[in-house]
Design brief:
The complex is a heterodimer of chains A (154) and B (159). With 154 residues, chain A is an alpha+beta fold. Chain A contains three helices and five strands, in the order βαααββββ. Chain A has one domain: Thiol Ester Dehydrase, Chain A (Roll), CATH 3.10.129.10. Chain A has a five-stranded antiparallel beta sheet with strand order 1-3-4-5-2, covered by helices on one side. Chain A is elongated and about 55 Å long. Chain B is of the alpha+beta class and 159 residues long. Classes of the chains: A alpha+beta (154), B alpha+beta (159).
Chain lengths: 154, 159
């Protein structure tokens, strides 16, 4: 793990009890700082060769500070914050995310959110959360809606 | 038509791109888990999933790799996008817009996805610094037995 990243909640810790999940409840925040190496590894993992993740000169020509992080990774952070809250039996059902500004490597990003809806679907509880990723300047770089299922316990 | 949306660009509306994905492997999963740092026990290994009392599945966003088969170098644009996956608009460059994904079921190692991506619409818009075009693609991914597993709507912002 990157030395400046930290997981606020861990999959091995006690997940938030489903009974405590009400609309408005906060999703435990997640902080992430990604190096250029990690960004490169992530783009390789999704087989994405877009040069905005590698070519500083191209990015500066767009008015950006340099290479930018892959949006799919920012969307994944939003999924991950919710699954960490719900624990190791959580299953992602849906995500919708929009990049509102570019995000850069080697910058600490803060992922926050809150529960917006809790529903029952048979033996599953379906939790929908609205999520946000902010950069160190508090600029909103991604907003998302994430839906995750978790087994309903007695 | 608009400043950016000429006849050549508009001809892309309705275009379909066939996707024949690669089989999802353990190696792909490990690559994704390490790169993303998302160590959900259901993703990491059979034993960690079993210890957590859950089914082994793969990271949901890994479908991105599983539906990007390797292509010859000639199929890529200078900025690294596969040519058939993006209309040529303005400078020929793009960034990602809204991505909406619904997983009908979790993906598993051994799954092989296929789909037909359809470019359903293009809308030219005025941004704060330049005009751009929102290109909307819709895709339904099916597994190796033809069952629907993912619905996706993806916006490309072309400028």
């Amino acid at each position: 793990m990157n030395a400046t990243s930290k997981f606020v909640s861990d999959y091995t810790s006690q997940p938030t009890p489903v009974a405590d999940l009400q609309p408005g409840a906060a999703v435990p925040p997640l902080d992430r700082c990604v190096s250029r190496v990690q960004s490169t590894l992530y783009t390789a993992a999704i087989r994405f060769a877009h040069q905005v993740h590698f070519d500083d000169e191209m990015c500066r020509a767009q008015g950006w500070k340099g290479v930018i992080l892959p949006g799919f990774l920012l969307g994944n952070w939003c999924l991950e914050a919710v699954t960490r809250m719900l624990g190791p039996q959580s299953v992602v059902r849906a995500v919708s995310f929009r990049l509102t500004s570019v995000a850069y490597p080697d910058a600490l990003h803060h992922i926050t959110g809150e529960v917006s809806k809790v529903e029952q679907d048979g033996d599953w509880t379906i939790v929908t959360c609205t999520m946000a990723v902010n950069d160190p300047d508090e600029t909103l770089v991604t907003k998302a809606t994430v839906t995750v299922a978790v087994p309903t316990t007695e | 038509m608009g400043v950016l949306l000429d006849e050549d660009a508009l001809a892309w509306i309705g275009r379909q791109v066939k996707v024949e994905g690669d089989e999802i492997t353990e190696s792909m999963v490990q690559q994704y888990v390490f790169a993303s740092e998302d160590d959900h026990p259901a993703y990491v290994s059979d034993s960690s999933a079993a210890a957590a009392g859950t089914e082994r599945v793969v990271p949901p966003m890994l479908y991105q790799a599983a539906t990007r088969p390797f292509k010859p170098l000639k199929d890529y644009s200078p900025d690294g996008i596969v040519v058939e996956n993006r209309p040529y608009i303005g400078s020929g460059q793009s960034v990602g817009g809204t991505l909406s994904v619904e997983w009908i079921r979790p993906l598993r190692i051994g799954d092989r996805l296929s789909a037909v991506k359809t470019l359903v619409s293009m809308k030219e818009k005025d941004g704060s610094t330049r005009k751009f075009v929102v290109v909307m693609w819709e895709t339904e991914y099916r597994d190796q037995i033809g069952e629907l597993v993912i619905r996706e709507r993806y916006e490309q912002i072309c400028f």
